[in-house]
Amino acid sequence: MKKTPLVLSVLLFSLAGLGAAETNSLTPQEKSAGWELLFDGKSLDGWKASENQGSFTVQDGCLVVNGKRSHLFYVGPVRAHDFNNFEIQLEIMTFPKANSGVYIHTAWQETGWPDKGYEIQVNNSHTDPKRTAGLYDIKDNLEAVAKDNEWFTMKIKVDGKRIITSVNDRVIEDYTEAAKPERIPSHAERLLTHGTFALQGHDPGSKVMYRNIKVRALP
């Protein structure tokens, strides 16, 4: 077996350490721009799961969602977990037949699908045809804009009554809420007001990983 030179081994180790340090962290430029981390990559500190708490774990710097229906709400100290205008950015990897979502302007709920706020869909291959970055049941996206088994970046921006979603810097939805939006009874509170974030655990056959979850408050 050919041995790797000592200098090269040290360099590879250093680069590996650098990559690990960059995950779930902020650069000086991001900090100066107002970005704040919501997930430390080590624990679920600042987050609280509803009903089936075992659906959320932390593995190798990733927040892993896999199990029975549950929702993980951000209850941490950043902005006292109450956001109005903001940008949130998440790195996501879905696995085949995965279904998840990122709720915005929502509130803690012990059971069931969250009533308050919007769900931004995370789904590239589930039997539900509503795909990633759509505003679930409000302005759905029916095109797969990312692939399973690959990391992609999703951004959500809320500015007043406007929601913009993007995947890998490609805008997917640009929606402005009407003054009196029409909603079915089960979605009566699917409105822009203010609130926290939640990640969705959909079903036992669905596995999704999140990392580098960061937010920036806007005026």
Task: Describe it.
The protein is mainly β and 219 residues long. Helices cover 10% and strands 36% of the residues. It has one domain (26-217): Exo-inulinase, domain 1 (Jelly Rolls, Sandwich), CATH 2.60.120.560. The protein is built from two helices and 13 strands; from the N terminus they run ααβββββββββββββ. Strands 1, 3, 4, 6, 9, 10, 11 and 13 form an eight-stranded antiparallel sheet that branches. Strands 2-5-12-7-8 form a five-stranded antiparallel sheet, with no helix packed on it. Strand 10 (162-167) and strand 11 (170-176) form a beta hairpin. The radius of gyration is 18 Å and the shape is globular.
List the helices and strands and how they pair.
Elements: H1 6-22, H2 28-32, E1 35-37, E2 47-49, E3 56-59, E4 62-66, E5 70-74, E6 86-94, E7 100-106, E8 118-122, E9 152-159, E10 162-167, E11 170-176, E12 196-201, E13 207-217
Antiparallel strand pairs: 1-13, 2-5, 3-4, 4-13, 5-12, 6-9, 6-13, 7-8, 7-12, 9-10, 10-11
Judged by helices, strands and strand pairing, the structural class is: mainly beta
The CATH topology: Jelly Rolls
The helix content, as a percent range, equals 10-25%
Note the main sheet: 8 strands, antiparallel
Looking at this structure, what is the CATH superfamily? Exo-inulinase, domain 1
> What is the CATH C-level name?
Mainly Beta
What letter string, H or E per element, gives the SSE order?
HHEEEEEEEEEEEEE
**Structure annotation, total helices:** 2
**Overall structural domain count:** 1
Mean pLDDT across every amino acid position: 92
Task: Summarize, please.
With 219 residues, the chain is mainly β.
